[in-house]
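Subgroup meeting minutes
Present: P.N., E.W., G.H.
Scribe: E.W.

1. P.N. recapped why we're keeping a running log of single-chain structure predictions: easier to compare across weeks, and new members can see raw inputs and outputs side by side.
2. G.H. added today's entry (313 aa).
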Amino acid sequence: MKKAIILMNMGGASNYDEIEIFMKNMFNDHRIIGAPPFVRKNLANYITKTRLPEVKENYEKIGGGSPLLSITQSLQKKLQERIGDAKVEIIMRYTPPFAKDVLKRLKEEGIEKLYLIPMYPQFSTTTTASSIEDIRAAAKDIGYHPTIVSHLHYYDFEPYLESVEERIIEGIGDEDPKSLNLIFSAHGLPVRVIKKGDPYQKQVEAEVALHVERLKQRGVEFNQVHLAYQSKVGPLKWLTPSLERVLEEIKNKKALIYPIAFTIDNSETLFELDIEYREVAQKLGFKTYKVCRCPNDSDSFVRAIEALYSQMK
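Output recorded in log:
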């Protein structure tokens, strides 16, 4: 049986031309905006039109595009070198490579079984469920009927936790961790999504607790450890506390940020955390403000994904 591993992610605009595509596709996702299709499409067009100039300015500050795809391609290459019994592919939700294009090729190649692995460590209906739904719908549209095995989350998977803690220790550098406040910053969600049963918040909180205990066992203790949420959009009530509020409450003005909701660096980590919130921290008088890199294509994260695949077989 021919097999393929699919690394799933939301996607990111790799250049200016893809920014509008990304925004329209994201805001037209019923998992993101739960309005009727006609209303959602018009709303997506309106949001994109009004926010596009600002978003393009933001992308300019990180070099004109998100590194998400290029880093994922490096991860794909390294993973393929370690896995001989399956092809490794990438499918993005809102920017190329799209599900239909990749699945057409896999159908032609006679791939009979797909292993779907999200690049989101915690499960949410707005991320992992949306990606799986998109892949299943695209397969149905082209008459492709492979066996599909989905991994829904790995926030508590030891090899993944190790890859995160490697980045945190790397981020500490020459600082005394006991002088730093470690802030796990998670992408926010509207509270109403959580109230519908989405497990994202509980899984984020559980992962934070695991990291604190595991780092303590390694002799790495911080002044304080916080969980905050970023990326709020619109008037709805979102998960709290916000990252800005947490920064305001830190007295010794020294922070190390880890982007816990992402495994691959993107515009939220490089612009929002490393530029936008750095400016907030500077205005608040922070002496130290450091942002950890995501696991990305590190050897430890490659091993973690390989181990996830082994579990799925």
